[in-house]
Fold:
Amino acid sequence: MKFIVLTLLALLVPQLAFAEGFQNLDMTGTERGIYTVLIFIIAYGFVMTEEFTHMRKSKPVILAAGIIWAHAALLAQQKGVPTHEMHLAFEHDVKEYAELMLFLLVAMTYINSMAERNVFEALRSWLVRKQFGYRQLFLITGIITFFLSAVADNLTAALLVGAVVMAVGADNEKFVSIGFVNLVIAANAGGAFCPFGDITTLMVWQAGYAEFFDFFKLFLPSVANYAIPAAIMYWAVPNEQPKATNEEAVQLKPGALIICGMFLMTIASAVSFKQVFHLPPFMGMMTGLSVLMLFGYYLKIQAHKAGDHDGFNIFNKVMHAEWDTLLFFFGVVFAVGGLGYIGYLELLSGAMYDGLGATTANILVGLISAIVDNIPVMFAVLNMSLDMDLYQWLLVTLTAGVGGSLLSVGSAAGVALMGASNHKYTFFSHLKWTPAIAAGYAGSIFVHYLING
Structure:
């Protein structure tokens, strides 16, 4: 709601100007301009109620993006802006989306390939068979999720480890509830310190506001963000032993560990393309995808020789990427980009960063991301043409990444786990621990100040 209020207040702020490489329309006070803001708010209302309506979040924002840009084009015509100048603004959004979409598509394909080769299922089986106590599992699953989300997105990490929590805590609703809160915090915190761990972190890296290794300065603040609430919640975890299980070990399929190694090499390739060749990181990721495709062909040939005619099909892994997330991201980029071209991001920048100061505004960004998805919030920040130093860019990366933990609906991980928990983990069971999570949020900002300030 804070985001909406600030947007509406921005209508009254004196006009600012200028976006990257092109002039915005400076027509925020027009009836058509205000209409585009309302369209975005309505679309985002549908996104926030996805849990209840079961309508995929990509659908309303793509429609909103089309409507907003159509009105932006009409406003540009009214103002007499040359068509080629309007195209510069539009092509800026195309470039932003293409680079991030291709990067994420490769990462998702690798994750799907590892899942198909039983990498994550084998990990889940091992944890279940070890017969750890609930408190041990609370710590183990949290730590695994923290580090797993640094290379996979927070949604994937939370769902994979969430399957373990559900498997061992099927008869203990209290453990599942608090265990899922723990996973949401760990997934969001783990994604904040690595460019690959969260879309918002990736956006800051690809925008060039911080180098790859700069983000690791957020490691200790991210640890604090997870460790403080985890330490508080630990004492509420049942000090009991789950029921014994006779589950058999899951065997890795051929090539599983090789694909894991190839994924790490692909990440190294993306870093090299950015740091050494000064090319966008997605080119390194696409190069890594080509290697996976060739290895997939080898696996398919080997499977055919063994009589398995299904084998390994790389295009199935591409097909099962999180297309709803990728298309949602398309809608967000173009909807926010269109509002920015009309002039609203300049006004929002004035209301937040000029009025409140960078530190307060960046902390507020994290609180906003507990209500509004952090992707549009961060994309808006990146397109405000802010003059901030590395400390402030890392601060907003941290807050936007971990702020979603404050509410269960604040991140994709929380929404997904609510759906997977059979009503054992709910909005209110998460809200019970919001004060502890807020302590971790404040602690992470303080640690960032002590280390990087």
Notes: The chain is about 70% helix and 0% strand. The chain has two domains: 2-94+323-452, 98-319. Residues 98-319 form one domain.
